[in-house]
Design a protein that fits this description.
Elements: E1 20-24, H1 32-39, E2 45-52, E3 59-67, H2 70-80, E4 84-85, E5 88-89, E6 91-94, H3 151-154, H4 159-162
Antiparallel strand pairs: 1-3, 1-6, 2-3, 4-5
This protein binds one DNA strand of 10 nucleotides through residues 12, 15, 22, 24-25, 27-29, 49, 51-54, 60-64, 91, 93, 95-97, 99-101, 103, 142, 144.
DNA sequence: GTTGAGCGTT
């Protein structure tokens, strides 16, 4: 019979154990520093990456935490799922993707296609009416916000809560 | 300081 052969799949429902954890449901104000502080309680954290929306320069509300050891990642996953950070209940799972996606230009790069005997275009219209044989220059799609270090956010795990009564 | 669900930019 089929047996348990599909153990290596790694779908979103059944991610494989990994040193990389996906952390979801974050407040957009939760920083990599906070997450590092929290997750490194379970073992050495190699890197924390909050996924930033290219358009707004703000957090997309999820992040990836790279542990040095899968064991520690497992412990962190168990302990941190359901934890509340900055008022948001987070979910933690093994990442199904291991790395950031290859940057894409955000522009269709295939040949223009259209219906030859109709004015009804089948798809790509030629990128803004200039040229038409592809794109000339990518208009800096991964705009990063100009915001510099905001020290008021990097001082502690949950400044809003911990700062009460400090000052 | 929207939420909700959400697997990725250098």
């Amino acid at each position: 019979p089929m047996s348990n052969r599909r153990r290596h799949v790694g779908s979103r429902d059944n991610p494989n154990p990994s040193r990389c954890l996906g952390v979801f449901g974050l407040s957009i104000y939760t920083t990599e520093q906070q997450l590092h502080h929290i997750f490194s309680k379970y073992g050495p954290v190699e890197r924390v990456q909050v996924v930033i929306d290219a358009k707004t320069g703000r957090s997309r509300g999820f992040s990836f935490v790279y542990f040095e050891s899968t064991e520690d990642a497992k412990a962190a996953k168990e302990q941190c799922t359901g934890m509340e950070i900055d008022g948001r209940r987070i979910r933690v799972d093994y990442s199904i993707t291991q790395r950031a996606h290859t940057p894409t230009p955000g522009i269709y790069m295939g040949k223009p296609t259209y219906s030859p005997n109709s004015s009804d275009f089948g798809g790509y219209r030629g990128g803004g009416g200039s040229g038409g044989g592809g794109y000339r220059r990518s208009p800096s799609p991964y705009y990063r916000s100009r915001r510099r270090y905001d020290r008021s956010r990097s001082r502690s795990y949950s400044p809003r809560y911990e700062a009460r009564g400090i000052g």
